[in-house]
UniProtKB/TrEMBL annotation:
Catalytic activity line of the entry: a (3R)-hydroxyacyl-[ACP] = a (2E)-enoyl-[ACP] + H2O
Lineage: Bacteria, Bacillati, Bacillota, Clostridia, Eubacteriales
Recorded GO MF terms: (3R)-hydroxyacyl-[acyl-carrier-protein] dehydratase activity
GO cellular component, one term: cytoplasm
Protein name: 3-hydroxyacyl-[acyl-carrier-protein] dehydratase FabZ
Gene for this chain: fabZ
Role: Involved in unsaturated fatty acids biosynthesis. Catalyzes the dehydration of short chain beta-hydroxyacyl-ACPs and long chain saturated and unsaturated beta-hydroxyacyl-ACPs.
Origin species: Fumia xinanensis
Length: 143
């Protein structure tokens, strides 16, 4: 059961179609951790060209999905309301399995460091309980 639907997510982060890439938030401890989902519909535009005849989820989009989940976590803190979370770095990214149309990505981000307007999240995307993508994502909060 969703804690936040897409309309509620839009109240926290500024992303909109076609670039709002998370469907719902299942768990949220503001500033601490988040679990969100993205159902990869076969008609997603990127599957038409990546790769024709053998569609595979682009890894960079999975990283963006993780970043958007992390932004929901960071921007849910009252003191961060109305701010924007910008990418400041991606470290230790690993792509462990192919993700395909019809899969549901479970996007988990745990905040491991925060200092002023800079933070780091440990991010893991899974499909059916198996790790698909892992990374450390660094963000900077801005107005």
């Amino acid at each position: 059961m969703a804690l936040l639907n897409q309309e509620q997510i839009k109240e926290i982060i500024p992303h909109r179609d076609p670039f709002l890439l998370i469907d719902e938030v299942l768990e949220l401890e503001p500033g601490v951790r988040v679990v969100a989902t993205k159902y990869l519909r076969p008609e997603e535009t990127w599957f038409k060209g990546h790769f024709p005849g053998m569609p595979v989820q682009p890894g960079v989009l999975t990283i963006e999905m993780l970043a958007q989940a992390g932004a929901v976590c960071a921007l849910s803190l009252p003191e961060n309301k109305g701010k924007i979370a910008f990418f400041a770095g991606i470290d230790k990214a690993r792509f462990r399995q192919q993700v395909k149309p019809g899969d549901t990505l479970v996007l988990s981000v745990e905040m491991v460091k925060s200092r002023g307007s800079i933070g780091v999240g440990k991010a893991v995307a899974t499909v059916n309980g198996k790790k698909a993508v892992t990374a450390e994502i660094t963000f900077a909060l801005g107005e």
